[in-house]
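Field log, afternoon session.

UNIT: design team B
ACTIVITY: writing a sequence onto a fixed backbone
BACKBONE:
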């Protein structure tokens, strides 16, 4: 009888020092996060939990409404799940972005927002409080100053006045 149980788990790869999602004995998906960025893996191998699966599914469904290809949707959903559940909190980096509003704004996990610096960037909100939001870059890249480019999957924390919520219709322009 064949074992049909899914046994996905997270681990830190000993060679690359990256957080990896192991889908099977021969399929390992490296995330964008290194050992120093990960705070809550409690053992060398940590199960891909029901909470991880629910979060991944919600992100995957949301990203399915964008024009991102299937590979980017999978990659971003896995990285967003890892960031939400295992990443060390990061300091705000609001100075890279223009203030978009003086109004107090609040956001929810799963909102798509834009930021403006040298170029426009679209992000997915991973976590939010009344003042700041943790976001992951959905755009291929965003030029934030003459020397710095953020690449797809970059996780940042910024003040909410730097973010503007986008509607589903606007998602087609990612």
């Amino acid at each position: 009888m064949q074992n049909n149980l899914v046994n996905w788990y997270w681990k830190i790869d000993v060679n690359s020092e990256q957080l990896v999602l192991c889908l099977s004995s021969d399929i390992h998906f490296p995330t964008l996060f290194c050992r120093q960025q990960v705070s809550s893996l409690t053992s060398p191998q940590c199960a891909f939990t029901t909470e991880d699966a629910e979060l991944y599914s919600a992100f995957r469904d949301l990203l399915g409404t964008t024009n991102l290809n299937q590979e980017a949707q999978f990659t971003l959903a896995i990285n967003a799940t890892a960031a939400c559940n295992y990443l060390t909190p990061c300091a705000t980096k609001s100075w890279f972005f223009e203030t978009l509003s003086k109004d107090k704004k609040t956001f929810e996990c799963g909102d798509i927002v834009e930021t403006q610096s040298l170029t426009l960037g679209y992000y997915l909100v991973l976590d939010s409080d009344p003042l700041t939001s943790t976001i992951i870059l959905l755009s291929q890249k965003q030029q934030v100053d003459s020397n710095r480019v953020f690449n797809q999957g970059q996780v940042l924390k910024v003040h909410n006045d730097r973010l503007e919520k986008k509607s589903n219709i606007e998602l087609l322009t990612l």
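LOG NOTE: The CA atoms of residues 98 and 116 lie 6 Å apart.
NEXT ACTIVITY: expression trials, pending approval
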